[in-house]
Task: structure prediction
Amino acid sequence: MSNKKVNFVYEKETKNSVRYKEVPEEGQAPVVGSLYIQKWFAGNSKQITVTIEKKN
Result:
C-alpha cells in the first residue's frame, strides 16, 4: 500500500458544490485534476488536502 497527499486550491463555486484545482508537485503531472466538494462540507475553505490510499 502507498499513500499520496494531493493539495487543491479553490477554483469556483457551482450551484451545490465547490470546485478545487489540484496543485501538482513541481515536475509531476496532476493525479486527480479537478475535484468537486459539496458546499455543506467545503464551507469557505480555500485549500483542501486529500489523501489517496492505493491498495494492491
In short: The two ends are 6 Å apart (CA to CA). Residues 2-54 form one domain. Residues 39-42 form the longest helix (4 residues).
